[in-house]
């Protein structure tokens, strides 16, 4: 080991620890984050402070502020976050700019006491029998450099799952360890335990190259078979939360190798930190058809065998999980859940930040929309066309798109959806498009489990294609509504919650395709969905021409969005020579064409702008938009007549009437009562 001069005696362990961190971080542009959580508050409610490198006194004071608060557990990490994090945000793994060392989370009370393969820089005791050996690097590492070392260290020590998380936050020597409810159930005293140095730091640093060489034997899992574990009584899994990735594995259908998939499920459970009995209960509850391999028997024994085999699992296949941007740092031992709330101070609201769109002025990032229509009106066809354009990065009906991964949940007619996409591919000549089609049974009303499973699939797909998911389309609502009743607010509310959860976990826009009632006026079922979405669209058909209209939007375009027809594309022929075809969308009149002013209409609009500038007044009443000026029709007409004085009054009257009607229909002029203004 190398050595760094240890400046302090250990009479003030908090200051000693903080000074050590700042010495190691000298010269790095980043911040240390101090997190305090109180076990007495709901969801461990806590506070976050951030400290620039060199702010030793401020960081010590922030930690000491909680020393006399009952229930307050205080943590910081062996890593630095980027500067500029929003107030109250402690950052995620993607915000880490440097990793200063690794910690083995060796808890005797969870059965993960482990062994040390080499001497640590120092050891902290967080409570009697629970230790955290620490290896400080002789140079800062990036997340990419540190992740494989952390995974190997976990395997080498047989320690708790926090060891493998390079953005974990850890207890601070000199603070108190207040037990949470889970620890009290394991028999811990309600009195806080002192967090203290078991072996003090004397300036020793670990050479990174030597550490990498020492961990080489644990770069992958051992091949030898272990004895099956002995399972006790299995618990009820109601209330047990599975990670999105685990939920997706449990619900998977049609996997290539069911045996290998079962191993992945068990390995993920160990990675997520489930105890053996809970993991076994989850394993036996799997809903995916991969579990049919057991045919009602042998599943318990197979789980016990695999759990024993993967006591020190190979996490190399889960490196993507370690790098997931959505995972926040987890507090050691306590694992406080993330807050249910998303808070932003007034002064932290970002200025000059434009709205992000998936399709410009139609679909906003992270929003929720609804497309409805009668059967046969082309609602699924136009949704598929939009999905293909966004995934391919192509303009859609003259509007810019933001390219990214698109997940199309074809809950009905998956094969037909794929044929439509095949027709698009052939018609437009595109390839390498990040568009994923998902079929299978989904239930978005009984619980949030399938929403989380979908989010897990999205996370894996993002890794596979290297693109962030921007749009998720669910076709149709009826096929994913489970046993719920669409006409009740209670069940529709559950469906809305599932969509909200999907948006929260992925950040993608979610569009639901829905059937209208036979009246064709709105999507069928409880009206709660209409109020929950950011925009709603209707697709109507008239004599072979289809129209997509927005009948309500928070801040996007309303009215006609697109008109189109369909063209049949031949995909293949069967043995009798009969062709298999699928439709592609053929745009009708574009937005630019619809808004283009023809003939005398341009002059009539110019006259309105001119008279508004000269004689417009600010209207009274709450029905008018803010900041507009208005005039009466007679003022507008007089301005036009004056500008076109060469024609007869009768001719000008006809031109004005036709132009006014056209401008109002296109939405380029607005009217309330006797008042008019350009939109």
Mean pLDDT: 83
Number of strands: 28
Strand content: 15-25%
Q: What global shape is seen?
A: globular
Q: Quick one: biggest sheet? A: 9 strands, mixed
- End-to-end separation: 72 Å
Cα-atom Rg, whole angstroms? 31 Å
Query: Tally the helices: what do you get?
Result: 19
Tell me the helix content.
25-40%
- SS-derived structural category: alpha+beta
CATH topology of the largest domain: Rossmann fold
Q: Please write the CATH class name of the largest domain.
A: Alpha Beta
Q: Which CATH architecture of the largest domain?
A: 3-Layer(aba) Sandwich
CATH superfamily of the largest domain: P-loop containing nucleotide triphosphate hydrolases
Strand order of the largest sheet: 19-18-20-21-17-22-23-24-25
Number of domains: 4
Unreliable stretches: 6-10, 108-114, 312-338
Domain RepB-like DNA primase: 117-187
Organism: Nitrobacter hamburgensis (strain DSM 10229 / NCIMB 13809 / X14)
Protein name: RecA-family ATPase-like protein
Pfam family, one: AAA_25
Describe the structure.
There is one protein chain. The protein has 679 residues and is an alpha+beta fold. The chain has 4 domains: 2-218, 2-Layer Sandwich (Alpha-Beta Plaits), CATH 3.30.70; 223-311, no CATH class; 357-594, P-loop containing nucleotide triphosphate hydrolases (Rossmann fold), CATH 3.40.50.300; 597-678, Winged helix-like DNA-binding domain superfamily/Winged helix DNA-binding domain (Arc Repressor Mutant, subunit A). 31% of the residues lie in helices and 22% in strands. Strand 18, helix 12 (414-428) and strand 19 form a beta-alpha-beta unit. The longest helix has 18 residues, at 489-506. The chain starts with a strand and ends with a strand.
